[in-house]
Amino acid sequence: MRPLLLKMTAFGPFPATETIDFSALGENPLFLINGPTGSGKTTILDAICFALYGKTTGDERDGAQMRCDLAAAETLCEVTFEFELDGRRYRIFRVPEQQRPKARGEGFTEQKPTATLVEISEFGDDILLVATKVSDATHEIETLTGLSVDQFRQVMILPQGKFRQLLLAESAEREKIFSKLFQTHIYKQLENRLKDQAAQVRRDRDDLQKKQYGILETIEVESAEELAAETKELTPQVKAALAAKGQSEKVFLDTTKRLQRGEALWKEFDQFEQADAELKRLKEQQNQIEQQRQQLNNALEAEKLRPLFVEQQRRATEVERSEKKQSELQRQLKQDEETLQQAQQQLPQTEGIVKEQDRCKAELLQLGEQRKKLVQLERLRRQCTDLQQRMAALTQLSQLRVKEQFLQQLKNLTTLATDLSRITNQLEREKLAGQKLAKLQDEQTTTARQLELAWHRGQAAILAAELEDDQPCPVCGSPDHPVLAHSDEKLPSQRDLEKLREELQKTTSQLEAARDQYRLTVSERDQLQARHDELQQQIDPALNYDQLTAEVSTLQQQLAASGVATEIAGLAADELAKKQLEEQRQLTTVETEITLLEKELPEEYRQLEVLEQREKDVQQQLSDLEKQHETLIAAHQQAKDQFGRTTATLKEVSHQLGEFQQQLKSATEAAETALAASCFDTVEYYHQSLLAESSRQQLLTVIETFNTRLENLTGAYEQLQRNLKDKTRPDLDELQTKLLQAEKEKKRVEEEWNRYNSRLDILLKTEEKLADNLQQLQKLDERYAVVGTLSDVANGQTGQKISLQRFVLSVLLDEVLLVASERFSLMSKGRYQLLRNEDRSKGNKASGLDLLVDDAYTGKVRPVATLSGGESFMAALSLALGLSDVVQAHAGGIHLDTLFIDEGFGSLDPESLDLAIRTLVDLQSSGRMIGVISHVAELKEQISLRIDVTTGRLGSSVELAG
Q1: Is the full-model pTM beyond 0.70?
Q2: φ/ψ of residue 176, rounded to 5
């Protein structure tokens, strides 16, 4: 993947929109991202990583925390990144979660995160791959690049500080780092899984052994042999007890049957005696039953006559009701005739009512026209008031704008004066710090020169001490040595000399950085002074800050009270003047219309309440007239209709009365004829014999129940008499005693059999459990032979005590060190190579991943911690580049065109720095874009292409240089 364009808005320390055109740096460039500490150099890499994956390079901050605090509230934090991959170009646009001002009203609302990914077409018709969904965009990027966010950080962005930590880390710590870089957690998972499986097998075996002891303890035996012996002894005892149990059950069953037969015979004797007594009682009730049977027969005969007498009564009731209704209708007809005559006399009044209705309607129409004019007049008056208020608010807003502008200028002047004072004090502090560093540099330079001279003199003295007579000098070649060099001073070591050089280099770097910072501060002070002088010339000296503040507050309160401040708050100055002119024209037009309408309206109707009251009065009068007219017409029609209905009803009722009287005569004759032919002498006798249906049913039930009971009881008595002939009552007490004896014997035998059989059953089941438990133990032993061995090997419990994951990592580390040593040897001029310590550590300390350095000058192998600061950086850089190459090789054939190194090179001397840059140039020549992040001054001279990041009080900005 090759970056083409990066665009950041309100991201990190960048408040505005910053654009970096990587394509302008050329083909496979080596460029420097330069700037002071904290300016935002690493933020450029954060923006690239966030655009692709929604996360920053270090994961210290998430996307929602990357918004610039100095950016304007309405400016959204967003990143756009264009890149080339496999000959195709893509653009991804990502917005993190953040707070933004509401589109309407005050306050803020939450901006949801979005991401858009498109493929850029050379023909202009871009292809949309992801519209807005964040997770879809991240997944698509992972598919295109073949890298997850962690892999991208590992192989494209090298934060040297963390790799120096890796250089000096112990095996256990390095194992954690490498396992993340090479994703070897699968081997660790395999170790843990095998270890868990082995532990589970051991726990299962222990549980089975405990279970076996528990089984034997439950049945109170000590061994399997004792269990087998007891089982053999109990088997014949159980067989004999079972035979005795069968014999006792047979005796008990025979005794039970004899007792049941005796109880049944005893019960029949009791039933015979009860039947004899019941028969005697029923015979005593026969006379009463005969009387009830005669009463029922009379009731049934009377029921046959009931319909005729009921019909007679119904006809008599109809005649009586019709006669009463005829009398009432005759009285009603007389009243209806009088009401009709009264209604006819009132009809002439309707003509005057109609004329009065027409007059009221005409007046209502006239009042409606006056009301429309009055409503329009009131609307115009309100509009006039609103326009006057708006005109006043516009005037107040104009005054407020002018005074706020003056007030802001005063505030800006005060702020600039404060900043000038602060920056002046800062310059003094930086000047003193720079003078101290310059003095320290002079002292360290003098000391270094003296130490180097002493060291060279010491080397000559050491060489002179080894010269022999008649042997050539290794310097001049002469066999004569007239004057031998010697030194009385203590000779400095190479280590002392290197340490002093490192301190001098560190002081020089700090001095350069202090001078750069001093120049930046001077530039910032000059800019502030120019702005302060320019603003001071623009401000009227007569302006008073407190008075302006009070006037602005008063105008703001007046505007807020007017109710129109929100509508006009956004108007510009020219729009405000235009708005005032427009409102004045509308006010003049409205006032003219009000004058014309007031002339057209009568004086008494210029108040809406008076007009509305008159309308209500006329409307009520019209409504009363309509009701009066309707009442007269309706009363006449109602009286006429009522008289007709009453006449028709009287005629119909008179006709029905004649028919009912004829029907009553026929029904009376039929009832008298039927009574004469019945068993009843008089009508009173007939009525006395009548019974209700429930009473008749009750008598019938009593009679039938008596007959049925008598018949059944007689049959049962005769049957029992035949069954008990020549029989006597049995002795139940004797039979019960024999049954109790048989039951007691049966229970004793059963208990003895249950005791033997239960014990034998428990013993047999226990033998089955023990056999099954032994089989499971054998299977677990076989499984542990495999799983336990694998667990010991994988977890480093055998041999060199190296786990499976550490073995895999050691192989990968060897490969990394092989690549890294080539670069380290080049940068150290053939002196150093990196090796892996294969010796086992003492005790339980982790081993197998410790690093050593092979020193060709001394021929010794020593720990990497003995390297100097500059040598440690070269080793860490070599390890980082080697690790990048190996991770890339193990990342599924992914080809990387770009590499960013986030590292300050200040710990290197000029020669080592030159070698490090030469290594990066060689890496660049292989076809990669190399970006170095640093503020070291020497890199500006050796790397011509730069991206300069500058910072100030208002935030940072980016500029391409070179």
Answers
A1: no
A2: -65, -45
